[in-house]
Specification:
single chain; about 725 residues; alpha/beta; 7-stranded mixed sheet; elongated
Length: about 725
């Protein structure tokens, strides 16, 4: 009686234990990511031939205690390796675990290898060679923190999930043993029709066919780890193989009482799936077709079926924002076409799964590689209205359907569509390609949504603390999906700017957390001017849409005047002044990035910036620059003073606060203001308060023109900024 250990991804242990028991194993015991069992040599062969869920079958050799490298070396040396395999065989050691003395797995593997080759050299005068890539004998050694060492040999050869029928695969293919688990957990027993609507290279369908036909998954294996061991019994192995061949032949001749079908949108990947089915010897039992998910119809004449599928998760495939529609369409198809059916869907994203809009009857926690996933099983009830829904949908309709949206999401969609219809017409009349289409109109959807030509930016405002994180995130996903439906934009043209709490292990991290997939810059027009915007790299895009009328005012009043733009940012107002015919334009900012951006905006508008006297781009702290500007003797007719609310940049002298420092700044600006000149003073501090008496003491007067500078698309938020026209008081 030998001892074995079958490895598997976490979450499969229960199924694997039951499977091994059916194969005749004894002393079966589940543990994390594997199952230990006992049996004769034939039991090991059968497990390697028939296991659908295991990754590897390990043949247990010995175990001992080792608290340091010397005891590890001696424990390995004491085993009679020469009785297990010949010196001509190549070896490789896989070492896992550590203790207080052996902290490196590489070091542990070296000590094990040294002990084995030293024993061979001592016993036989020669040593086996090491082959890390394709060894004849793969030795597994595990050291736990209690200093217990277990030693095994892999008898399966290559990982058992490689059935050797998949010569080609699509992007992010699912492993065969995980596909087999999905089929089993769906409850399918081969008696009803089976479908995968996003089948990719066909792995789930092939595993379903292999199971229904009782075909051993190891039948195509050309290499078995056991074959390189001295205890290998070739006749016994051939007996196990012959029995498996005979069983497969009997079931293939008998056929199946059901149909197995797969669909995918990509004709090329469907051809790959057909080739894989041919290699797996199940091509006569699996059929394939090309279909978009949203257009899929029940191919079984409306009869219930079992659907098992592995849609993309957004980890390695696709775009999360596009995938919202995939999962919504999957739910729509299930409810419309498959009443009375069962569906099993796996994903690493609970958020995406929630977009199926069905309540799961069972949930299984599995791993796709290192990725934790949920397999949700849905039992769809019979619906009398299903036929009516299918008829209403239309066989070739590609229009987005809203029946799966929640009531609150539908309300948001309707509001956003109404806004978009009105504002898109207004923007076209105005000659504006960038505008705000939604600004927290509904309390449950607390965000601003801006349109930039053929792209959208959703900036989520921070949710109140009493709103759970999952609810806030769900609403964000609702907004993304509804914006897609209303605009027709692809997901990669919708960007998220989020200021929100991040939970440990959040699904969306890195670029996805900010809505980024790839950096996107584009040019948008505004009253004939052209500006470069970046929708991905910063919270702000480079164009403050609420200042559109301020820029138009500058353009209309700049002709023949010297213009100064303090805190110029990306220089959009400087461009407006130049296009309006300003005699000179000086742009001041302490950021090289923004000054480069400013110059690019000039070039986009065909403005020659080679004349350094006419167009100056000054890198400086505006406060410091103003303190010395009066000494230059230059006077400015028109000055834009649009400071940040607060700044403590290292490049600045001290800390700047618009409420505390605006009077001193206006005093400095007045020193370089030409007679009859004008200061346009604006800021975005919601609580800003201007003191007319204090300004009068500086010889200045201010006219509040804020209402005249709030554009149509910001009427809901008139306090988005404040704006004043400041002039010298005539003596």
């Amino acid at each position: 009686m030998y001892k074995y250990f079958a490895t598997c991804p976490k979450g499969m242990e229960q199924l694997l234990a039951a499977e091994l028991t059916e194969l005749g194993a004894s002393a079966v015991r589940e543990t994390t990511a594997g199952v230990s069992f006992s049996g004769e040599l034939e039991t090991g062969y059968k497990s390697a031939m028939w296991s659908r869920f295991s990754s590897r079958i390990l043949f247990s050799l010995t175990d001992f205690e080792a608290d340091d490298d010397l005891s590890l070396y001696l424990g390995i040396s004491n085993y009679a390796w020469e009785d297990l395999f010949s010196v001509e065989k190549t070896i490789s050691v896989s070492f896992s675990g550590q203790n207080s003395e052996i902290r490196s797995t590489e070091y542990g593997a070296v000590k094990v290898k040294d002990a084995i080759v030293d024993r061979f050299r001592k016993k036989q005068g020669a040593r086996p060679s090491v082959d890390r890539r394709n060894p004849d004998v793969l030795i597994y050694v595990h050291l736990d923190r209690k200093n217990h060492v277990t030693v095994s040999i892999d008898i399966s050869g290559e990982s058992l999930h490689r059935r050797e029928y998949r010569a080609k695969a699509g992007a992010a293919p699912i492993k065969e043993n995980l596909a087999a688990v999905m089929v089993r957990r769906s409850g399918w027993d081969g008696s009803t029709n089976f479908i995968d609507p996003m089948c990719g290279s066909g792995t789930i369908l092939i595993e379903a066919a292999l199971s229904a036909l009782n075909m051993a998954p190891g039948l195509r294996r050309k290499r078995l780890g056991f074959s390189n061991l001295l205890i290998h019994d070739e006749a016994l192995w051939e007996k196990v193989r012959a029995e498996a061949e005979e069983t497969a032949k009997e079931h293939q001749e008998k056929g199946l009482p059901c149909r197995i079908m797969g669909f995918d949108r990509d004709p090329e990947i469907i051809e790959i799936a057909r080739e894989n089915a041919e290699k797996a010897r199940v091509a006569d039992f699996v059929s394939f077709g090309v279909s978009e998910l949203r257009d899929l119809r029940n191919p079984f004449d409306g009869a219930p079926a079992t659907m098992v599928t592995n849609p993309p998760y957004g980890e390695r495939l696709g775009n999360v924002k596009d995938l919202l529609t995939v999962y919504r369409e999957l739910g729509d198809v299930l409810k419309r076409e498959f009443p009375g059916s069962t569906a099993a869907v796996i994903s690493s994203s609970k958020d995406l799964l929630s977009y199926i809009r069905l309540r799961a009857s069972k949930v299984y926690h599995l791993f796709n590689g290192s990725l934790p996933c949920e397999l949700r099983v849905y039992s769809l009830r019979e619906r009398e209205e299903a036929a009516g829904q299918a008829a209403d949908a239309g066989a070739g309709s590609a229009a987005p359907r809203t029946e799966s949206l929640s009531e609150s999401a539908t309300a948001f969609l309707n509001r956003f569509r109404k806004n978009l219809k009105h504002l898109s017409k207004w923007a076209a009349r105005e000659g504006v390609e960038a505008y705000r289409a939604y600004d927290a109109d509904l309390p449950d959807y607390n965000a601003a949504i801006d349109i930039y030509r053929d792209a959208a930016v959703i900036q989520e405002y921070r949710a109140p603390k009493e709103i759970p994180e999952y609810e806030s995130h769900r609403r964000l996903l609702d907004m993304v999906e509804c914006v897609r439906m209303a605009t027709g934009f692809e997901g990669k043209r919708i960007f998220l700017k989020q200021r929100r709490r991040q939970s440990a292990g959040s699904q969306y991290t890195g670029n996805e957390a900010s809505g980024r997939d790839d950096s996107l810059e584009l040019m948008v027009s505004e009253y004939g001017a052209r500006y470069l915007v970046n929708l991905t790299d910063r919270i702000d895009t480079g164009l403050f849409l609420d200042y559109r009328l301020v820029r138009r005012y500058i353009r209309d009043n700049a002709k023949g005047k010297s213009f100064l733009n303090l805190f110029c940012y990306t220089g959009t107002s400087s461009v407006a002044a130049a296009l309006g015919g300003a005699s000179s334009v000086v742009s001041v900012d302490m950021s090289s990035t923004y000054l480069d951006w400013t110059q690019e905006n000039f070039r986009l508008n065909g403005i020659d910036i080679s004349d350094a006297m006419k167009y100056r781009f000054v890198k400086a702290d505006c406060v410091r620059w103003l303190k010395t500007a009066e000494n230059e003797g230059r006077k400015y007719d028109l000055v834009l003073f649009d400071p940040p609310t607060f700044s403590n940049s290292k490049s600045m002298e001290g800390v700047f606060s618009v409420q505390d420092d605006y009077q001193e700044m206006l005093r400095l600006i007045s020193g370089i203001l030409a007679d009859g000149g004008l200061i346009i003073f604006s800021n975005n501090f919601r609580g800003f308060s201007l003191d007319p008496e204090a300004l009068a003491g500086l010889g200045l007067s201010a006219e509040d023109v804020t209402p005249r500078t709030i554009p149509e698309d910001y009427r809901r938020t008139p306090k988005i900024h404040c704006c004043y026209l400041v002039r010298k008081i005539c003596q």
